[in-house]
Amino acid sequence: MTSSSLRNDNLIYFDNAATSFPKPPTVMEEMMKFMKSIGGNPSRSAHSMSVEASNIVFEARTKLAELFGVKNPMRVIMCFNATDALNLAIQGLLTEGDHAIMTSMEHNSVARPLKELEKRNKIKITVVKASNKGIVASEDIARAIIDTTKLVVVNHGSNVFGVVQQIEEIGKVCRTANVPLLVDASQTAGVIPIDVGSDNIDLLAFTGHKALGGPPGTGGLIISDNFDHSTLRPLRFGGTGSYSDKTYQPTFIPDMFESGTLNTVGIAGLLGGIDFLEKYGGIQKVYAHKKKLTKYFYNAARDNIRKIKFYIEPEICETGVVSFNIEGMEPSLVAQKLSDEYGIMARAGLHCAPMAHQTMGTFPRGTLRFSFGIFNTEKEIDRAVDALATISKG
Ligand SMILES: Cc1ncc(COP(=O)(O)O)c(C=O)c1O
């Protein structure tokens, strides 16, 4: 299957960092199965359709717990995307007078909730700047920690440049200072192995609709086994199907953080995505495929497109996310031509990560980004390189 085979046309989809496409067939199958014959609301009733829905959700929690190295599946909090999970962690943890640290590679899904709290005069923020290769030094994080630091937030894989932070090292620094570490794994979940225990991560926000292959509306927050969940306040309050006699929110996980009906059909699809990844050969194979395509693109582009400019070397471009520009051309214009004239889907601009572009010197114009998925092929890259070569001459 390639990105065009499912649509039965000649389009090439290189925007997998935004959301992956196509979704594996198992995702559609599980979602259809859920809609056709399961359909119940989990944990709400004792009838068999509700129980079956609960079993699907529990299976998904169990698979996700295994994937991210947490022992108790109830520590997998189902959210609607990574942004939702990041908001739960950031707004749930920080209180007035706290200091928080983020890196200059953060997505707006981290920066905006933090800046909002700062704007309301609740917290102070330090931004730790990455190097001109997009890498954050753990010593710089250590230096930024002060007495009132209550949270360190780190982007694991950049959605702009594909660089990956040494999360284990940063985790050690946070553990030593006794400051919780929140990791934004939106771009790495399903690509780079993550173990919240050995990586010293307290909270991990992931998205289900990118490399895990699931549908939009899925994602979650992993609360590591040793992290005291009672220090986190829920974002939403309401019905959970548990302790219905009480008008107060339950205080146990996951119900405490999962008010309202879950995206059960999405969760069924996410389970299908994880199953597919296992059959595909696991995370290592996903990583190897993305790395292979990245190197192939760098080489072909450098050989054939005179005016192409990359911002990092392919060796540290890890997640199939490649940013570049054609010198002298607006990235948005090139993206438009790729879509309109060549049927190639790519994203241009700042990719919701203005600080990452400031760090790498590509602000405010931004870059053109190709983000490869497991269904992309070298043949598709050849077509894109030919297209870029022609565009760059015009
Ligand atoms: C690094 C990063 N963080 C957060 C997000 C937000 O993810 P979601 O769309 O699942 O909320 C994205 C999405 O592009 C991302 O790349």
Mean pLDDT: 96
Give the N-to-C terminal Cα separation: 33 Å
Identify the bound ligands: pyridoxal-5'-phosphate
Shape: globular
What profile does the largest beta sheet have? 7 strands, mixed
Query: Helicity range of the residues?
Result: 25-40%
Counting DSSP H or I runs of 4 or more residues, the number of helices is 11
**Which fold name corresponds to the CATH topology of the largest domain?**
Aspartate Aminotransferase, domain 2
Give the C-alpha Rg: 21 Å
Please give the order of strands in the largest beta sheet: 2-8-7-6-5-3-4
Give the low-pLDDT segments: none
> Strand share of the residues?
5-15%
Order of helices and strands: EHHEHEHEHEHEEEHHEEHEEHEH
- Which second-level CATH architecture of the largest domain applies? 3-Layer(aba) Sandwich
Secondary-structure content class: alpha/beta
CATH superfamily of the largest domain: Type I PLP-dependent aspartate aminotransferase-like (Major domain)
Number of domains as seen in the coordinates: 2
**Quick one: CATH class of the largest domain?**
Alpha Beta
Number of strands: 13
Could you characterize what this model shows?
There is one protein chain. The protein has 394 residues and is of the alpha/beta class. The chain has a 7-stranded mixed beta sheet, sandwiched between helices. A 4-stranded antiparallel beta sheet has the order 9-10-13-12, covered by helices on one side. It has 2 domains: 25-279, Aspartate Aminotransferase, domain 2; 282-393, Aspartate Aminotransferase, domain 1 (Alpha-Beta Complex), CATH 3.90.1150. The two termini are 33 Å apart. The chain has helices at residues 25-38, 48-68, 82-93, 108-119, 138-144, 167-177, 264-280, 282-304, 331-342, 354-360, 378-393; strands at residues 12-13, 76-79, 99-103, 124-128, 149-155, 181-184, 203-207, 219-223, 308-310, 321-326, 344-345, 347-349, 367-371. The protein has 11 helices and 13 strands. The chain is globular. The protein is 39% helix and 14% strand. Strand 3, helix 4 and strand 4 form a beta-alpha-beta unit. The structure holds pyridoxal-5'-phosphate. Pyridoxal-5'-phosphate (PLP) binds next to helix 3.
